[in-house]
Amino acid sequence: DGGITQSPKYLFRKEGQNVTLSCEQNLNHDAMYWYRQDPGQGLRLIYYSQIVNDFQKGDIAEGYSVSREKKESFPLTVTSAQKNPTAFYLCASSTGAGLNTGELFFGEGSRLTVL
Amino acid sequence: GQQVMQIPQYQHVQEGEDFTTYCNSSTTLSNIQWYKQRPGGHPVFLIQLVKSGEVKKQKRLTFQFGEAKKNSSLHITATQTTDVGTYFCAGLNAGGTSYGKLTFGQGTILTVHP
């Protein structure tokens, strides 16, 4: 089946630790995105990538890092510099980017809890 | 930067009542998308509106895009318990510093009482 796979689904982390969330897609989409979801705040863009080996900061990039070494993969690292990392993280992909951005396909999400 | 405001934040209805959520952008949009997120799930694309004044229907759902391409609405007729979830709009900015950027509204959480 084509789609987006995020792992792990649930993750617990101690303060001061970095953690990496995986996102893999087999839709052959060029653009990939990471969003953070908190109650009452909708979806906020962390990072996005329109092509392999290139990515851009979104609205809340501080304390996060990404890489895009392969078209299929866009992992997100939540670093110890992120002051409030407990949240639901969603990865998405789309066929186009910029003004050609089409439908976003979302993964099932990763719920990170910092203890 | 671009802001997309969505109201109401919460809506509780009795099954069979209608429901409407509204989305307003601070800037002109190239297009607007709507998504539904079931409780515990992930957002799923519903529709995209592109043209000024466009109206699209999907069974009991009616989507509108304003003439100025700065606002949109989603109306559900005769809600059912399966309509429960959070409805998000997402506007694609047509110009300025947020050119080509997709910004999500805060979402409207719909509860349907049987």
Give an overview in words:
The complex is a heterodimer of chains A (about 120) and B (about 110). Chain A contains no helices and eleven strands. Chain A is mostly beta strands. In chain A, strands 2, 4, 5, 6, 9, 10 and 11 form a seven-stranded mixed beta sheet that branches. In chain A, a hairpin with a 5-residue loop joins strand 4 and strand 5 (about 45-50). The termini of chain A are far apart. The mean pLDDT of chain A is about 95. Chain B is an all-beta fold and about 110 residues long. Chain B is globular, with a radius of gyration of 14 Å. The chains are: A mainly beta (about 120), B mainly beta (about 110). The interface between A and B is medium-sized, with 21 and 25 residues.
List key phrases describing it.
heterodimer; A: 115 residues; mainly beta; seven-stranded mixed β-sheet; 0% helix; B: 114 residues; six-stranded mixed β-sheet; five-stranded antiparallel β-sheet
